Amino acid sequence: MVDADATGLVAILFDSNDLMLHEYKSLLESAGIQAFVEGGMQEFSMFGANLRPFGSGPVLKVRKGQLEAAKQVLCENGVVCDVPEGGVARIIERVVQPILQSGSSDTTQLAALLDGVSKDFRELVFAEIQELEGGSGLLRGMLSASVEQGMGSEAQRRDLAQALCRAHPQATCQALAELAALPATDSRVRLARTLGRFAQPQAAHTLVSLLADAASDVRDEALESLFVLSRGKSFDFAPEADPAGTVEARNRWQEWAERYSP
């Protein structure tokens, strides 16, 4: 954490997006915490969580006496939290490398560490992991576990899916497709929601198959994701209806999936 300046202010958050910082400022002020957005610094450490300088950019500051309260408000709203003994490098060294070296697939501790931090910090961690040998496979397993078991927050699942979608979309969609037969309805709902973030033919085909799921919640989530991928189509599919009565609409979705090319 940087020291308080002469005005008694202390930097709490860096973001290159000035608009986002003003949103966080409003969030803090709605909780009765006075906040300020000021010009950038040459080097900045977010709760000690990053070990490299971000460079110049705007920062969000609060009064030193309100720092802990401000951190709590941001944490409760999913913006940023402390990372125990923070730092991307430290997480890679102490959590990720031991998993890869042992051949374990247990990412529970990693998910817990990343649950309360900011989106930017999670993206840094995911990017670093994908540079490691076996790292992408570890993240695909982590996403599958998140879908199946509900491990980690929805925000973390979203960010992980987006990171894998950018780097390894086909392999990830294939791994996710294997989860369509999971027995738990909640798992299949999470699967349908996650697949909506992948503009890939494999994701479209899996989502179409979920339109025939026995659970209406799964069918509804699959339709929502297909609506996004198709940019607004529905083919008059009614997720609340019994699958036996939606064959025609599902066939139209299947035809669309055969043609789908993002």
Overall description:
This protein has 262 residues and is mainly α. The chain folds into 3 domains: 9-76; 83-167, no CATH class; 179-262, no CATH class. 55% of the residues lie in helices and 6% in strands. It contains 12 helices and 3 strands. It has helices at residues 18-30, 67-76, 88-102, 108-114, 119-130, 135-149, 154-167, 169-177, 185-195, 201-210, 216-229, 247-259, and strands at 9-14, 35-38, 59-63. It has a 3-stranded antiparallel sheet with strand order 1-3-2, with helices on one face. Helix 3 (88-102) packs across helix 5 (119-130), helix 5 packs across helix 7 (154-167) and helix 10 runs antiparallel to helix 11 (216-229).
Task: Determine the N-to-C terminus distance.
Answer: 43 Å
Strand arrangement in the largest pleated sheet: 1-3-2
Determine Rg (CA atoms, Å): 21 Å
What class, by secondary structure content?
Answer: mainly alpha
Helical residue percent band: 40-55%
Number of helices: 12
Mean pLDDT: 83
Order of helices and strands: EHEEHHHHHHHHHHH
Largest sheet: 3 strands, antiparallel
Strand composition percent: 5-15%
